[in-house]
């Protein structure tokens, strides 16, 4: 069956986003050009400007697309868990994949730096993070409801806990990017206690 015009346009856009994401990882945000993206995607340079007003728009959309997919993957992993501790374990399984050689890790570090200069990227990324935190907070409220392991704060502080979990995971990825030896330090216990709002026994 012959693809429709809309389907061809969607495929072209996907190829451009994937090519841009690859080049951000390989060369850095500021070194990506229209021609290089087109060459990597196997498309005419004019198609880049047909689908995106500027190279900056293309890079922002490519980074946000990757971030959205990763957040959805994290949410799905947590949704499969029966309690907060298992959910944290699922998240840590994802975090274990992040390293200095991992393209997603490099892309996210480039995106975070670019967000300090690109207001549209910062605003949209902040919105996505807010949506992720809201989802995690609701999951924590549901998972902790009626469990013996959670305190009353498990529900009341769910939003703050979601914020701390996200910040802890982001920081963990950054530390492992800078110092790969940090991967030998297990943080499963502390993060699980955080998710359940149980008193920590270690400093």
Provide a short characterization of the protein structure.
The protein is mainly α. The chain has ten helices and no strands.
Mind explaining what this structure looks like?
There is one protein chain. This protein is an all-alpha fold. It has two domains: 1-52, Arc Repressor Mutant, subunit A (Orthogonal Bundle), CATH 1.10.10.60; 62-196, Tetracycline Repressor, domain 2 (Orthogonal Bundle), CATH 1.10.357.10. The protein is built from ten helices and no strands. Helix 4 runs parallel beside helix 7. The termini are far apart. The model is unreliable at 148-154 and 197-203 (pLDDT under 50).
Question: Topology, please?
Answer:
Elements: H1 5-27, H2 34-41, H3 45-51, H4 55-79, H5 84-95, H6 103-114, H7 119-144, H8 153-156, H9 158-178, H10 188-196
